[in-house]
Amino acid sequence: MPAHRVRSIERVAEGVHFVEGPASNWIVLSGDGTASLIDAGYPNDIDLVRSSVREAAGDAPLAAIAVTHGHSDHTGGINPLLAEYPGAIVLTGDDELANVRRDVTYQVTAGAVLPHLVKPRFARWLRHAIQAGGLQDVAVANPTGLADGASFELSGHRVRARTTPGHTPGHTAYELVDERAVASGDALVTGHAVSRATGPQALHPMFHHDRAAALAAAGELAREWADRTLLPGHGPLLRR
Ligand SMILES: [Zn+2]
After folding, report:
1. Nearest 10 degrees: CA dihedral of 27, 13, 9, 174?
2. Domains detected in the chain
């Protein structure tokens, strides 16, 4: 089982820090006197998220959290952070709003996991997911939607939203334009607790809302982003 600590914080570029958390990752951006996050860990990662923001961005107040998708290992820290920074906004893809609000839930089901639990790595993953608060209510009340291709700034960094459906209906990746890096979320990862593979890959099919679309998207994105630094939702940073 992963220990409850950050595996690494790596500086990707000026004002861009990639945090490989215990089981899922987040990114701290800073640069215009504010800090922003892309994703926010499991609910019980909140202290790790807070301390990584301080380490990467000092006392800069949190201005925004951009969310790749509404799964509890990516949205878990949002509500406690909003309580602390009531002015912060939450952004996600237009088609992911309902999942982030939890009007609907597109998340791996017990029925999909059950047949795999005879395998130790799946059992370990599930135990960690539960201990990390993966079953807690993570509904976010008022996220703001982004269209595919929308350009905006996060703490002084130019960002472009890219809808990458399959893992969830509105999964959204965030391209850091000037850094030639992409926060690929769960559309393209570089590792996962249930996977033996290393390097760019799709998550295990059981995690996807639309398996065929997710696998096709991962292949396409791996080619399209072959020269981009990958900041994935799971697995280590891949510099290019
Ligand atoms: Zn996910």
Report:
1. 20
2. 8-232 (3.60.15.10)
